[in-house]
């Protein structure tokens, strides 16, 4: 669970600058109070009353140094110089010491934390992304970072200095008339305590609202991602209704629960503040009429106490803003505290510390491998398999039999519960994960295309590939067959803001991209499952050219894709039940034959 402490830790790196700038801003707020005090003293001089003792001594000392007599005119001159220093001289300094640092800290912290968030995104376990959609994750991070950035300058530059200002005011009033100071202190503490306790309750409601908003955003993002399905099932109206209901629910919470609460609080605060200001006026006037305080003190007390009460509203407004943002900041920290993937510790982020470079022949041994996503449900059991270098091995089996899971273990997205996987005789668990994964390449059913040129996408895994290498990979993967149809050839922008590639074209791009990293092990994860016959055929031809050049593992539902594999491994309920080539397995009256017959003739044998 994240807490307030985590919000403080967000700025920990800038602690010293933070303490300095908060102290400086607070000092400026207190210095500001010199003006009403000096004005009060000027009034005393003008009305023939004496200066305060301390000030009189200061004027006398200054007069002695200047070789002057401390006349009323000289006192006025000293007071004007003081006012000049704390107003005009201070003016150009304050923004540099206050505003500059507050924003610098907030902006630097945002850079740091955005880096951390990106690192987090890159190191969370892969199953996190199965359970959380991109809209929800992106929304949570963006809101959390933005709210931290806006909050810091307000709290460090305004909220805390204002509290110090109020303390300074209290000290001045105390030096003038203690009864007014007591009234002032009690009213202040009362207003702030009541306000903050109410804000605490509003924060809880804000948290509910934040969750509602996250769900709405998440669904909107799903609609965008799955728009084809929405349209195909003609569910526009129901999606619209669902989102409208959610927005109405949000509005109801924000308007009648949260906003109502803030307005009610503001009303109570204002009324109470005005009662207090009036009470101070009555008390101060009473003390002046009775000759207990001077006219100058009357003006000073009234001016600074109304200054103090006028600060109450901004202080509690800042508290309100903080309360509104609190839950999204906390939810950001909850995201940041999510446990990392098992591979996270060994992922290197520093290009200056490159991971070791491996080169394997591609011999793979699965030794007595067992695995389950949860302990009570084994998905793979006692897998024993040997894959020779340059061999092409197909994994087939019914849906849910564990084919993809085996690949996930090979890629080290998960660690096996029992047994191990050896590459060239070395346990993959002992290898540097980045160095090891660089020797693997995988072509998924859905090939991701990044926004950029086709060339950028091809060289994604190997940015230093030469154009000759790119062309060679494109020839093998049959990318060259469609490249001339693209307006700028290799330099055509594809992806989000560019030309849309078809499923088959994306697959071929995926294969060429995989080939360009020159992997020792190439994996096709249902690469042809969603393609039409012609595209499938093109991919099969590409695969045929790759066959024998490196260890290749093919997961396939369509058995036509795996017919030419050196070895076909049939999985059933997480266990290997048959191994052999196409002809051998057809002779065997087993699952492969049944699946094959089903696909060829549509009938079970
Ligand atoms: N992240 C996960 N968490 C929990 N269970 C999972 C997860 N991924 C897969 N499974 C379960 O593990 C089992 C094997 O799934 P796997 O994806 O490996 O099968 P598959 O043979 O590749 O299936 P398909 O051919 O349909 O892709 C299934 O019962 C599936 O529900």
From TrEMBL:
One Pfam family, short name: ABC_membrane
Compartments where located: Cell membrane
MF-aspect GO terms: ABC-type transporter activity; ATP binding; ATP hydrolysis activity; ATPase-coupled lipid transmembrane transporter activity
Membrane topology: Multi-pass membrane protein
Keyword Transport tagged: yes
Membrane-spanning ranges: 74-93, 167-192, 271-289
GO cellular component, one term: plasma membrane
SMART domains membership: AAA (SM00382)
Domain ABC transporter: 364-598
CDD domains referenced in this protein's UniProt entry, alphabetically: ABC_6TM_exporters (cd07346)
Record keywords: ATP-binding, Membrane, Nucleotide-binding, Transmembrane, Transmembrane helix, Transport
Keyword Membrane appears in the UniProt entry: yes
Gene3D superfamilies: ABC transporter type 1, transmembrane domain, P-loop containing nucleotide triphosphate hydrolases
Entry superkingdom: Bacteria
Domain ABC transmembrane type-1 span(s) in chain numbering: 19-324
PANTHER family linked to this entry: ATP-BINDING CASSETTE SUB-FAMILY B, HAEMOLYSIN SECRETION ATP-BINDING PROTEIN
Annotated protein name in UniProt: ABC transporter ATP-binding protein
Organism from which the protein derives: Tumidithrix elongata BACA0141
Phylogenetic lineage: Bacteria, Bacillati, Cyanobacteriota, Cyanophyceae, Pseudanabaenales
